Amino acid sequence: MENKPVTYRIKHVGINNPNEEEARRSAALLCALFGLEETLETPAAIFAGDIFEVMKHDRLGRCGHVAMQTEDVEAAMAQLAARGVAFDEKTIRRDENGKIKFIYLRDEYCGFRFHLTT
User: Per residue, what are the HEC states of the chain?
Assistant: First the structure.
């Protein structure tokens, strides 16, 4: 039986800022530029629509992060591991059945950290 191919789509782009004040300015700018609304605020970020997660810190990735959505995170991990990709195991989040639904890749690529999510 052949495995179903893993597909990906960009869920959002996380943009780093040095602090909350800069994050608020960045979120307002992105909303004004692209006709978005602030849709959610968490202790770590402000969402501009569902496109941008404007971070209130600059901890992950030189530029930020990219959330890659896929139907099966564990299948995506297997595919990427076969290509030599390592994962940041401490970032794993599981669903109610124990299946991995979120994980960061260990390394930075093109200035960004990437995470897989459902």
Answer: CCCCCCCCEEEEEEECCCCHHHHHHHHHHHHHHHCCCEEEECCCEEEECCCEEEECCCCCCCCEEEEEECCCHHHHHHHHHHCCCCEEEEEEEECCCCCEEEEEEEEEECCEEEEEEC
CA distance 65 to 106: 12
CA distance 102 to 118: 7
> What would the pLDDT profile of 36-84 be if each residue is shown by its tens digit?
999 999 999 999 999 999 999 999 999 999 999 999 999 999 999 999 9
Q: What is the largest CA-CA distance in the chain?
A: 53
Predicted confidence (pLDDT) per residue in 32-43, tens digit: 999 999 999 999
